[in-house]
Amino acid sequence: MILYINACVRKESRTKRLAEALLDKMNDTIVEVKLEDIAFPVVDEAFLKKRDRLIAERAFDDPLFDPARQFAEADTVVIAAPYWDLSFPANLKAYFEQINVLGITFLYTPEGYPKGLCNADKLYYVMTAGGEFCPEEFGFGYVKALAENFYGIKDVRLIKACGLDIYGDETEKIMENALKKMEV
Fold first, then answer.
1. Fewer beta carbons within 10 Å, N or C terminal of the chain?
2. Where does 2-181 sit in CATH, by number?
């Protein structure tokens, strides 16, 4: 099963266009999580107390953990996230706050290091950016660090198209080049 995490909000999203082209190349069932349709709970003290209590009780069947279980069970993960303000949309960060669950997506070794518990062997991070200044460490780098170090997903790939809003650049040509370079 491919878990498609869609952080795109525009109807004609260029990021979504790239992600859907990638998904078309894959031969598996796709489950889409459209982040704009989710009202994430605020991660405040009450939320953390409830989550910590449920984890201590190993009550992982609680609906609070549905997103984490879904993520952990996926065979492949595709994240579509436009590059905004040197990162990704806030709803993707909220999603990560919901799926980082000790005992479902990761655990700590006796030495205190995270060890991934997720099934996925690949994670594709798909992004587009209006300009050329899009340092990977702020968006993709964060997701790659989580995937490799917390979730145990070692094959993390970036698919991107940048410079799409620069006057004089050929937006469609940039998109076509990104689509041609895309590998599954």
1. C
2. 3.40.50.360
